[in-house]
Specification:
The structure holds 2 protein chains of 2 kinds. Chain A is α/β, with parallel strands linked by helices. Helices cover about 35% and strands about 15% of the residues of chain A. Chain A folds into 2 domains: about 130 residues, Cobalamin-binding domain (Rossmann fold, 3-Layer(aba) Sandwich); about 210 residues, Rossmann fold. The longest helix of chain A is centred in the last third of the chain and has 16 residues. Chain A starts with 6 loop residues before the first helix and ends in an 8-residue tail after the last helix. Chain B is an alpha/beta fold. In chain B, about 50% of the residues lie in helices and about 10% in strands. Chain B has 23 helices and 11 strands. In chain B, helix 6 packs across helix 7. The radius of gyration of chain B is 24 Å and the shape is globular. Classes of the chains: A alpha/beta, B alpha/beta.
């Protein structure tokens, strides 16, 4: 299948760097077939697209919520075990009914979605079905051609979409340093902001999800926001933003979860992060705001812990796992000095005992009274995570922010 | 702590033992004489039969030798059928007695569509020519994920790809009219994460119909293999440790109370369908089996009590390794269970169900799928599988329609009843040079995967490091690349492609009207039990929290609670599974 490129873009090949497309991909509820979507995700990212992957077995409301909070250009669903006619319709309906009908939905399902199904699905709000045998290359061309459009900057949205939209605008126009004042604060309290940093693979995302579950349990009416940074690929500009897959407690309307690609920033955070924090704080919606950096190295300081000027967050949590490589390596980690809270995660590992002793000794050198929290976030109901959450709340109260402790 | 290294070592040790016995047979006259005498007695025990064209044939083919070394090689290396190490077969005679009607058919056809009464009708259609009762059940997506049919957003999936079961009453409708207490009746259920709830419903429904005394007579298999779910199939509800605990609770309850039931079917099928090579399929499946055995032993269960209740399920596709995969698996399992777990003969036998490969079937020129399935069936029976399902040619685009399900069933009848291949003589192929060469290679490659997992800390530790998933995905990707490049020919797809348009084929879909009927039934059930359900769920939560046997409680809970209510209750206690990325 030959696909003509957009003639306008072809005529202006040397335009300023394009804003990456953002796509949400997912597999519908009661369907665990994730091999096709995994292949598509990699291919999309290779084509410079930011892919927010939600995972398999995803409900209509989880998909719609993620599409809104991530402010994506389009939603792609990979469905292999039937029921697609109703499911796709419900996703499109839910987006439309919540005032987000500008986000189109496309899908694919190998041989399970027939041409006759497609006709019905298109009538009921699905934008396009890719049939079995469509070459990946053609899929990519069509997506880049047809879904690059986004809502106009002055389009009006409600609720989480207005927050999400404001963050997108900041991401697209980083020269505007001041966050746009789009959301009038509904109530007092700007929310306690915690930056979370640590090496890749330390379990930051899982730990954040476990902290989220404690927040939701202990604050039956509060809201929590999470800004999850993941790296953009330096060559293609694409990214697979996969933090939502393991964020099982983020599937709740009281959680605002936004994935941010770094888009060339080397600090461990998207350059839009400060403004995004501002937007979330201004909204007055959130008691607790968690900001996750990408996996960072020994010299990193994404949240400005040592800066003379204003720190980006109210507190910094540094997370590491037992495999940090020895005492000398530990000495080099700058954030062990700068962090307000330090957690050793994966404490079910045999190396954990040694690590606990070495890290505590390292913290004692700082003379700041830093306490090491030992956590095993992969284990549900871990008492170490309970203690860490209590410590975050105590810090919030001490600094005069709610931190959820209302 | 992993035993995989020990198991790999035990197989190597056994191979050295065989080599030593062969050498001894050739050097030690007394031993040689013993072997010859034993061999003569075995050969004398083989009776003769006659083909329909009058050719006399032995009912069991044995190597035509009198040389003590060759005898030792066969008896210790391969094993007389039904004897250690069981490479030849689990039992002395299999498939032979179709014409006389004394044997049970190995054919077992998987079915499930729409509501319980639709699947019941399909069961009746498929079993009308069968002597023994073989009912194998596929469930729909909501049931597989433990959700009720009225759960938000699942309506379109109700009855799609399998049968919708929400309550004990649905279970009653599913098997209505079948005498499940018959000696030759056997039910199988492809059900994993919610398996304890579904089996409890099965027991409760059977008690309602046949009386409380029927439970020990119920015979069948429930898949319930949570390790392969985490590794490949993705139908997981609870965290891994809780999933394994609920499974072990069920197995421990079944062993004394349902002596004819197989409470777990350790499955490579989904691992292979997700892309694993035959060696990976065998290695991951066997190692999962050894892990279950280890977990149960650690809970104090007796290997000789639960060992015979473990069963296996493998995929059979077109790769050459499938010629021997069942044989090699039986041998490794027997040696590992005997030498590492201390199991007696009954627990050493790997009971095998095989299904032809769904992944090998394609939509393009889909009638070729009939041939693909026929070849796979032949490979499966050459491995002396204990039971077998053959796929329908229309599966790439639909739940099997009646027409193609019947053709799939007839494929097995043609192989076993019409052709003379398996009818007259047992062990036509065992010991052939090609098979032996393959067996040795495949076995060694399986053992090296065991050793790799051993260094990672065993199956569960490897799984937490995403080892199995990464290996499976890598292999799946390689297959796709090979198909794309043409290195792996797929007729009608990348070779000998015709321009014929895809014929329009009927689809088996569940109508929205039926889906709504299922929801109405479920809601009526919930209304009727609105007063009693909360207390039943409280009792269940109490047992789950206290560490008691959850399955024993579930048998009562299902009387008044739906699948979705029970899943939600247990998730409150143990949490939810967090997918691995």
């Amino acid at each position: 299948m030959a696909v003509a490129l957009n003639p306008r873009r072809a005529a202006h090949p040397a335009r300023a760097p394009r804003v990456p497309l953002r796509i949400l991909t997912a597999v519908p509820i009661c369907d665990g077939h994730d091999s096709a979507v995994t292949t598509i995700n990699i291919e999309l990212a290779r084509h410079g697209i930011e892919v927010i992957y939600l995972g398999y077995h995803q409900s209509v409301s989880a998909i719609a919520r993620a599409a809104v909070q991530e402010d994506v250009n389009v939603v792609g669903l990979s469905s292999y075990n039937g029921g697609h006619i109703i499911f796709f319709k419900e996703v499109a309906d839910q987006l439309r009914h919540s005032g987000n009908g500008d986000i189109p939905v496309f899908g694919g399902g190998g041989g399970t979605i027939t041409k006759a199904d497609e006709r019905i699905m298109r009538r009921q709000g699905t934008d396009r079905i890719f049939f079995a045998g469509t070459p990946l290359k053609d899929i990519m061309t069509i997506i880049q051609r047809d879904y690059a459009r986004t809502a106009k900057p002055n389009a009006k949205f409600k609720g989480d979409r207005s927050l999400a939209r404001a963050i997108t605008l900041v991401e697209q126009n980083l020269s505007a340093r001041r966050p746009p004042r789009v959301i009038p604060a509904r109530r007092q309290g700007r929310g306690f902001v915690v930056g979370i940093a640590g090496p890749g693979g330390a379990g930051k995302s899982t730990l954040i999800d476990e902290l989220t579950s404690r927040f939701l349990r202990q604050h039956p009416t509060g809201r929590i926001a999470i800004l999850a940074n993941d790296p953009s690929h330096p060559d293609t500009g694409g990214a697979i933003l996969g933090d939502r897959v393991s964020a099982i407690y983020a599937q709740d309307d009281r959680v605002f979860f936004r994935s941010l690609a770094t888009r060339g920033s080397l600090t461990g955070l998207s350059a839009a992060t400060p403004a995004a924090i501002g937007i979330l704080q201004q909204s007055g919606e959130f008691d607790l705001i968690l900001v996750e950096s990408v996996g960072v190295g020994q010299e990193s300081d994404p949240f400005g812990s040592f800066g003379q000027s204003r720190r980006l967050t109210d507190a910094v949590l540094f997370v590491l796992a037992p495999h940090y490589g020895g005492l000398i390596q530990l000495q080099k980690i700058a954030l062990l000095n700068g962090a307000d809270l330090v957690a050793l995660n994966k404490c079910d590992h045999p190396m954990a005992r040694t690590a606990q002793a070495e890290i505590q000794a390292r913290l004692n050198q700082n003379g700041r009274g830093q306490v090491l929290h030992s956590t095993t976030a992969a284990r549900h109901f871990d008492p170490g995570v309970d203690a860490l959450f209590a410590a975050i709340q105590a810090l919030g109260s001490a600094r005069g922010r709610t931190g959820g402790a209302r | 702590m992993s035993q995989l290294g020990k198991i790999a070592d035990s197989v190597d040790r056994y191979n050295r033992f065989v080599a030593a016995e062969v050498a001894r047979a050739r050097s030690d006259r007394k031993f040689a004489a013993e072997l010859r005498a034993r061999w003569a007695a075995l050969r004398a025990s083989v009776t003769m039969t006659r083909s329909p064209t009058g050719t006399p044939l032995p009912r069991l083919a044995l190597p035509d030798t009198d040389e003590p070394g060759a005898i030792a090689e066969y008896l210790f290396g391969q094993g007389f059928p039904g004897q250690f190490p069981y490479a030849t077969a689990a039992y002395r005679e299999m498939y032979l007695d179709h014409e006389t009607g004394t044997g049970e058919e190995p054919m077992r056809l998987f079915a499930g569509l729409g509501l319980a009464e639709d699947t019941n009708a399909r069961f009746k259609y498929l079993s009308r020519h069968q002597k023994s009762l073989r009912l194998s059940t596929a469930f729909d997506g909501p049931t597989l994920y433990g959700l009720d049919s009225d759960h938000a957003g699942v309506l379109g999936k109700v009855g799609e790809g399998g049968v919708a079961i929400d309550t004990v009453e649905d279970m009653g409708r599913l098997f209505a009219g079948f005498d499940l207490t018959r000696k030759d009746a056997s039910v199988s259920m492809t059900m994993n994460a919610p398996a304890p709830v579904i089996l409890a419903m099965f027991i409760a429904a059977a008690k309602r119909r046949f009386g409380a005394g029927c439970v020990p007579n119920l015979r069948g298999t429930i898949q319930a293999d949570m390790l392969k779910e985490v590794q490949a199939q993705n139908e997981v509800i609870f965290p891994v440790d809780a999933s394994l605990r609920f499974l072990c609770d069920m197995i421990e309850w079944c062993v004394p109370n349902m002596p004819r039931w197989y409470p777990v079917s350790i499955s490579g099928y989904h691992i292979a369908e997700a892309g694993a090579t035959p060696v990976q399929q065998a290695a991951f499946t066997l190692s999962n089996g050894f892990t279950y055995a280890g977990l149960l032993q650690a809970r104090g269960a007796d290997i000789n009590a639960f060992g015979p209740r473990l069963s296996f399920f493998l995929d059979c596709s077109l790769d050459v390794e499938y010629l021997v995969l069942g044989r090699v698996c039986r041998r490794i399992w027997a040696i590992g269970l005997r030498d590492v777990f201390g199991a007696g003969p009954k627990a050493q036998i790997l009971k095998l169900h095989t299904q032809t490969s769904g992944r090998s079937l394609i939509a393009a020129e889909f009638q070729n799928n009939l041939t693909r399935t026929a070849v796979e069936l032949m490979l499966a029976y050459m491995n002396y599988t204990n039971s077998c399902h053959s796929n329908s040619a229309d599966e790439p685009f639909t739940t099997p329609t009646e027409k193609y399900a019947l053709l799939a069933s007839h494929g097995q009848s043609i192989l076993l009843e019409e052709s003379g291949l398996f009818k007259h003589t047992m062990n036509l192929f065992g010991g052939a040079p090609g098979l032996l060469a393959l067996e040795r290679q495949v076995e060694q490659r399986i053992l090296s995967v065991f050793r790799e997992m051993d260094t990672l800390g065993g199956v569960i530790a490897a799984m937490e490091q995403r080892y199995q998933r990464s290996q499976i995905q890598e292999s799946g990707h390689r297959i796709e690349t090979q198909i794309y490049s043409g290195e792996r020919p797929v007729i009608g797809l990348n070779k000998y492609v015709s321009d014929e348009p895809m014929p329009s084929v009927p689809l088996a879909r569940t109508s929205p009207k039926k889906q709504r009927l299922q929801v109405e039934r479920l809601r009526a059930f919930k209304r009727r039990h609105a007063k009693t359900a909360p207390a039943a769920l409280q009792r269940l939560a109490h047992v789950a929290r206290g560490g008691g046997n959850v399955f024993a409680e579930l048998v009562d809970t299902v009387e008044v609670c739906s699948l979705g209510q029970i899943t939600a209750c247990l998730a409150d206690v143990v949490g939810k599974f967090r997918p691995m990325v």
